[in-house]
Amino acid sequence: MTIAIPATQPPRKYGIDFTKPVLYGFAAVLCVLIVLPLSWLFLYSLTDSKGALTLANFYRLFTESSFYDPLVTTFIIATTSAIVCCAVAAPMGWLVARTDLPFSGVIRALVTASFVTPPFLGAIAWELLAAPNSGLLNKIFRGITGAEPDVHLFNIYTIQGIIFVISCYTFPYVFVLVANSLDRTPGELEDASSILGGGRWYTARRITIPLVLPALLAGALVAFLQAMTLFGSPAILALPAGFHTMTTKIWSLFQYPPKPELAAAASLPLLVLTVFLLRAEHMILGRRGYSVVGGKYGAPRLIPLHSWRWVAFIICLLVLMLPVFLPYMALFNAAFSPVATTFLTFKNATLHNIQFVLFDLSAASLALKNTVILGTATATIGTMIAVVIAYVTARRAVTGWRVLGFLATAPIAIPGIVLGVGLFLSYTRPPFVLYGTLWILLIAFVTIALPSAYQQLQAAFRTIHPELEDASRILGATRLRSLWEITAPLLRTGVIATWCFIFVGVMRELSAAIILFTSETKVISVLIYDLNESGDLGAISVIGIGMLLITFAVVTAVNRIPGFGNVRFRN
Amino acid sequence: MASVELKGLTKRYGSAAVVDRISLHIEHGDLVCLLGPSGCGKTTTLRLIAGFVEPSEGEIYVGDRLISSPALTVPPERRNMSMIFQSYALWPHMTVAENIVYGLKLRKLARDVIAKKLDAILTTTQLAPLAQRYPGELSGGQQQRVALARALIVEPETLLLDEPLSNLDANLREEMRFEVRRLHDAYRYTTVYVTHDQSEAMTTADLICVMNGGKIEQAGSPEEIYNRPRSEFVARFIGSSNVLKGKGLDGGRVDFAGVALRCTGEAVVSGATTAVSVRPHDIALSAKPPQQTENVVPAIVVRQVFLGDSRDYMVEAKDGTQLRTLTAAEENIPQGSNVWLHLPPERCRALLG
Ligand SMILES: Nc1ncnc2c1ncn2[C@@H]1O[C@H](COP(=O)(O)OP(=O)(O)OP(=O)(O)O)[C@@H](O)[C@H]1O
Ligand SMILES: [Mg+2]
Questions:
Q1: Tens digits of residue pLDDT in A105-133
Q2: Which of A62, A533, B31, B251 suits a disulfide with B191, CB 3.0-4.6 Å?
Q3: Do residues B261 and B199 both lie within one domain?
Q4: A464/B138 Cα distance (integer angstroms)
Q5: Could you give the count of Cα atoms lying within 13 Å of A6 in the half-sphere of its Cβ?
Q6: Is residue B113 domain-shared with residue B255, that is, in the same domain?
Q7: What band does A395 get if pLDDT is binned at 50, 70 and 90?
Q8: Are B226 and B140 part of one and the same domain?
Q9: What is the pLDDT of residues A167-188, one digit of tens each?
Q10: Using the beta-carbon criterion (under 8 Å), do B154 and A8 form an inter-chain contact?
Q11: Helices vs strands, H then E, count in chain B
Q12: Strands ordered across the beta sheet of B322-328
């Protein structure tokens, strides 16, 4: 080999520095996405219908019973759901992570299934099961006991029913936090206690439980938040029962005649509470909650349950019947029987519902088209924005990267329905009249999808050592070429996974869409809600099963990608 | 010629200077080690040279070509340098062969030239049987050699290495240390080598720069650094010196525990507190008062350890300073005994204050 002849080009500044414009461009886009709707929200909440400044909206909010009753109801529902979720999820998480429970993989998979089930679909399934007259469980009860037709065992249209259904699809959040925290707690910590003479139960009480307590508390907060900001389940179950929660109340304020100022004022408590609870969660988990414990730790020692193993397993299965087996069976039953709440037999099985959805339901094809357009566009745009921001923050490529990261995660603190109200207020007026078009839904969905897409991609970037790019550059590749040849191929699976997750997320988004849709811009989730109002439960079941199948396919595929096991859907 | 010159190089993050006014001239073909404790700015200096980081102040020249200054920075890809990273940075989605020829492809060389060069480097680094493997399927030492091959095949003017051996086990590290030196001698590119392991620096470098807190404390040949440390930091960091503190007297003497020690090294300022370094094996220890009186310090044995071929003593002088010294294994003086230490004047190095 010979020494290369020095390449003696005169040094000069290469190209224009594109990093600044990129930073400002993205910061501006994010500001518009977040700051604009929130500003209108604040402004509207402080004005009357003629535009004069006033505090009257808030005064009404806290004095009129039609407003503070929902506030109280929401509080009761959220608190109780959080308690129920913890009571169910904590023991189950411990059984799965720390004991020799048989088939713990199956239990985890079933929890994931309830995790990804759209809550509004679960609520409709439970209507099929436990509506006082037509509910399948009540029919079975009457069939067994021979009770009168107006006697029922369960009534889902009650506050208890709502709490039950919400808990069914919220407890996975607590479960995941608790089980992850236990998975990550090194067995050595417990061994250290044992070697000092602590018995198994003593160690569990003094070491294990204190170690997971932060995760449990954080889980409780997240569950509270979910229950508080959910729209679908309370809309489906509370409205027929004749009462409101905050989210349904906000929605009703948009029914004719619309009262946007009141809706804005009613949205603010939800927003403030969400921000507050997320801060609290962050403080409780601290850095610890999200960091992977390094070093070489042994697998945790499993506590033998002896003869209780199978008992525990059966109990877990029985509990998981409620969010998974029973509702899925009800949906299946409704999809193939002539009337949604009659029992399916070989004789009465029919494909009528499928035919109806595919060919006769004109709204379905429009909603499907809109959903596919919006899903594709949201996933593509959202992934692109998230990739750039994740790159900038993971590589600290520009000064001010922190601001971008903050803006990208900020929407997580805006409940879907609040965002819906904010966007409605922002885009029904010049200069941006987007209401009634797909654009406003696109903006909503991109904003909602951004935080988790950003977090996933940032995690993906973190697995790619920055020196991999540097190595390519020092050998002579430009920044763009290094990105294209080194980073892009390594990031591919992560990007595809993120894209799919956004798509699935759009499919199940209801709470912002319910405020923003018009007859021409209906999406699948809104269609399901409409069909529920008109009682077409068979058609819902067909669409719902389709949604579930797509979701399961995506989740199963994506779970194989390292680092993506832990994705949060927003509801 | 590809001599490398750093002039007053400074890098600040916020208000903290991570690299602080470093000036250094590296002759073409020299192997320079940047040696220092963790966080002293070695990697930052190396990345400044590579062009990944822009200096806050100062300049870098290669030959007479200005490549870095606060106003303009030639991007890394235009510097004709190669770098071996601490993590090796092998691309996991490319085979060993693809990794190695990447730089040649960028240079748009003809296919047969690339193939020839690849064969040559695979032979030199003994990687030929592994050419079609992926990096994930290699051992640490093999990965190291791939990184080396990838960096060398482009025939760089300057080779930068960032703790390239820190991920290897002790045996392999020894072996690779000589391999780095051998390849350097064979191809004579200018090499900047970063490490925090002093024996690695001692065995490979022509010139060692001991860094501390973003500054170069001392630059010199390994022998110079070892025998003639100029500051307390260097004395303690390289080998393990005894550092005595005393008051400066006239005539290059230092008053230590009541003895006027004659010293060499830095100029002694009369009246100023002065540190003096002396290596353990340079101290002569005796159980009886010796004939000569100059530079003899009385002390008491605090503890002693039998090391097989020598004995390691810890003794305490009158002012409470503890010194380590090595003697022949037969010299068995019990704990608590009075001893006399002779510190040869030419081995007592007065240090910068
Ligand atoms: N991008 C950055 N922003 C802020 N501080 C930085 C940055 N990069 C490095 N530093 C700081 O500069 C100091 C020197 O870092 P550097 O990586 O050069 O140390 P080092 O000598 O290579 O250490 P080690 O032996 O641990 O690799 C450290 O204190 C580090 O925290
Ligand atoms: Mg370093």
A1: 899 889 988 888 999 999 999 999 998 88
A2: B31
A3: no
A4: 19
A5: 20
A6: no
A7: confident
A8: yes
A9: 999 999 899 888 888 877 766 6
A10: no
A11: 8, 21
A12: B284-286, B338-342, B296-306, B310-317, B322-328
Among candidate residues B206, B232, B258, the one where a domain is terminated: B232
> What is the span of the domain harbouring residue B280?
241-350
User: Tell me: the pLDDT tens digits for A25-50?
Assistant: 888 888 888 888 999 899 888 988 77
Q: Which residue's CA is minimally distant from atom 31 of ligand 1?
A: B39
Average pLDDT over residues A254-266: 86
Intrachain domains A66-290 and A357-571 with the same fold: yes
Q: How far apart are CA B193 and CA B202, in angstroms?
A: 12
From ligand 1's centre to the CA of B33, what distance in Å? 17
Beta carbons of A475 and B66 less than 8 Å apart: no
pLDDT higher than 50, residue A14: no
- B36 with B20: CB under 8 angstroms? no
Architecture of domain A357-571: Orthogonal Bundle (1.10)
Residue of B nearest to A481 (CA): B106
Q: Is the pLDDT of residue A553 over 60?
A: yes
Q: Tell me what pLDDT residue A18 has.
A: 61
Which residue has 């819906």 as its token pair? Answer: A420
pLDDT of A1 higher than 50: no
Longest Cα–Cα distance of chain A, Å, equals 99
Looking at the predicted structure, is the pLDDT value of residue A435 above 50?
A: yes
Q: What spacing in Å lies between the alpha carbon of B141 and ligand 2's midpoint?
A: 20
More confident residue, B138 or A558: B138
Asked if A470's CB is within 8 angstroms of B50's CB, the reply is yes
Distances (CA, A) of A369 to A366, A520, A522: 5, 11, 9
**pTM of this structure:** 0.76
Query: Does any ligand 1 atom lie closer than 6 A to the CB of residue B18?
Result: yes
Predicted pLDDT of residue A11: 36
Start-to-end Cα distance in chain B? 38
Which ipTM value was assigned to this complex?
0.75
Phi, psi for residue A299 in degrees, rounded to 5: -65, 145
The verdict on B27 and B62 lying in the same domain is yes
- Provide the number of structural domains found in chain B: 2
The reply to whether B219 and B295 lie within a common domain is no
User: What CATH number does residue B325 fall under?
Assistant: 2.40.50.140
Positions in chain B short of pLDDT 70:
1
Same domain, residue pair B290 and B201: no
Q: What is the pLDDT of residue A295?
A: 39
Q: Is the predicted pLDDT of residue A399 greater than 90, yes or no? A: no
CB pairs under 8 A between A and B: 97
Q: For chain B, how many residues are written? A: 353
**Which of A345-349, A515-519, B316-320 has the least mean pLDDT?**
A345-349
Kindly state whether residues B123 and B264 are assigned to the same domain.
no
**Domain boundary residue among B197, B232, B267?**
B232
Residues above pLDDT 70, as percent of chain B: 99
pLDDT (0 to 100) of residue A313 = 94
For chain A, domain boundaries: 66-290, 357-571
> Which CATH number fits the domain that encloses residue B119?
3.40.50.300
Ligand number with the minimum distance to the CA of B14: 1
Instruction: Say whether B85 and A11 touch across the interface (CB within 8 A).
Output: no
Helix (H), strand (E) at residue A404: helix A401-409
**Is A396 an interface residue toward B (CB < 8 Å)?**
no
CATH topology assigned to domain A66-290: MetI-like fold (1.10.3720)
| B211/B246 same-domain check | no
Q: Is the peptide bond before A431 cis (omega within 30 degrees of 0)?
A: yes
Q: What is the Cα–Cα distance from A346 to A343, expressed in whole angstroms?
A: 10
Residues of B with a Cβ under 8 Å from any A Cβ are 1-2, 50, 52, 62-63, 65-67, 72, 74-83, 85-87, 89-93, 102-103, 106-107, 120, 150-152, 154-157, 160, 187-189
8 A C-beta contact, residue B341 and residue B279: no
Omega into B229 within 30° of 0, i.e. cis? no
Which pLDDT tens digit goes with each residue over A271-315?
A: 998 888 888 888 877 644 433 333 344 566 677 888 889 999 999
